[in-house]
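Exercise 3.2. Students should predict the tertiary structure of the chain below and write it as structure tokens, then compare their answer with the key that follows.

Predict this chain's 3D structure.
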Amino acid sequence: MHLNTRITLFILTLFVLVLNFCFAPGNIISWDVYGYYLYLPTTFIYHDLGMLNESVILELMDKYQSSATFYQGMKMPEGNYVMKYSMGMAILYLPFFLMGWLGANLLGFPVDGFSLPFQYALFVGSILYSIIGLWFLAKVLDRLFHWKVASICLILIVIGTNYMVHIGMYGQNAMSQNYLFTGYALVLWLTIKWHDSFKLKYAISLAFVIGLMALSRPTEMVVLAIPLMWGISTKDSLLHKWNTLWKRKKQVLLVGVIIFSIGMLQLIYWKVYTGKFLFNSYGGNAGEGLELWSPFTYKFLFSFRKGWLIYTPIMIFAIAGFYQMYQRNRSIFYSLTIFFVGNLYLVSSWSNWWYAQSFSQRAMVSSYPVMAIAIGYFLVGLLEQKREVKWGIIGVLVFIVGLNVFQTVQFDKGVLHADRMTRSYYFATFGKWSATPEDQKLLLIDRNYSGTDAFTNETEYTGKVLNSFDFIHENGRPGKTDCCSFKLDADHIYSPVIEAEFKDITHQNHAWFRVTGSVFLPDSMDTDDFSLVVHFSHKGYAYNYKTVESNGLELKSGEWNKLSFDYLSPEVRNHNDQFRAMLWYRGHRSILFDDFKVEVFEKNK
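Answer key:
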């Protein structure tokens, strides 16, 4: 590596260190990281990987404030839990977990997997991964470009993108993006080294890196496009690559066996705790998943809510750099382009395409080593342009980097919101250090993730009746009796359902629902429970499932009891997803249900 590239790398490494320690998290083992990490303490400390004793997990979560709810696990009918996330990140965390275990024993801290030694070990270890990632990216760039171009690429990635938010701020260095960024830098370097020498050690290293990346996030299998397509630019080079792989088929077979063996760890875990080798661990929430036939690519790139090219505009030049790459180094163009298109397709197919609580698109951060190469080729082409063009574009690049730094500060101050941005709010706060109350009215609705919905601003909405049932028989007899109400008993446990597709309810991005009904209890209901249920469903699977439970209400027998429930629509996965409301009875006697109604409230325009 050139000395000047090393100097640039050293300065950027210091910058990343300062960022991390200035924004050191209160507890790095929280939220998604808590879910990635949980494999380790449940295996090595509590010896309960199935989490049958859920009280231990919930008590620790409460003690360390790791998460508001245990969304990181999915409860099975047998009583055990299954981790939502695959185990790759836990394996990458393992050395630091062991360091934390040793520190807790030596220093007298609780050896519970979450005390300060465990937190600090993971924090420092994640910084180490960041440094390794930058080191190998610098080696790749130094191999492909003059040191000036390599150095500028490093600066643009670290300072000119959302890298510094998700790698150096808010404890995000323990998220998968940091570790996968390092993984991609290693894949690029090992691919270059293997094609230089075809040595077995590079093939084996490549297999382990790819295997662990895919075990961390299965969609990362798209990284295989890089080594498989590397060096292919023509039909002749394709034939040459095939012959090269065939001559070294034992190495290729070994790579495949290693990747498959690493992947089997997850399949074995699922088999043990679910009875199936293949299991949808996100199945507990049908509201999120891949929409491969209808990706959200346009919104992913251009939405003011979280558009990648809106909030990380320097990547426009990276995309333009693929043209220069085609002109100057076609032997890597197809490899990196196929990867870029495939990766963009996958990450923009995720139903929650805005990847909440992030600046710009955090899902793209891991692929920035590839994008750095594209930026490098753009710069190579730029240096050959006429002076006026060259300095004009350099001025734009400097402005974009300055804008990124300013907007990162805005994000830190809460001016740029983590997941509620709109076009009007963006321009209302552009260049501002703070947002006024009037500005904040332009944000998307503030969703409460505590599990309860509070409809406090009803005057800003207009209501209408979605549907209602009064259950009066054709004879028209008034009153709430057996003949004019709906009876629920052991043979009829569900009331009629009020349902409608989201697209038929509203054309706005959300709506409030008010579900009301009356229940008559003939006698004491001490042992018989019922629930007023509301949820959305996607392809028959329920999500954002909420209820009003009888055991939480003050109900009186021998008279009618009014039920009322306000419900905010979720971020619907598809506009064909269906709203459903009903009463669910779980008793052996009978109750009466009447005056069932659902009202919809839409925001006033």
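Discussion points: DSSP finds 22 helices and eleven strands in the chain. Residues 474-481 have pLDDT under 50 and may be disordered.
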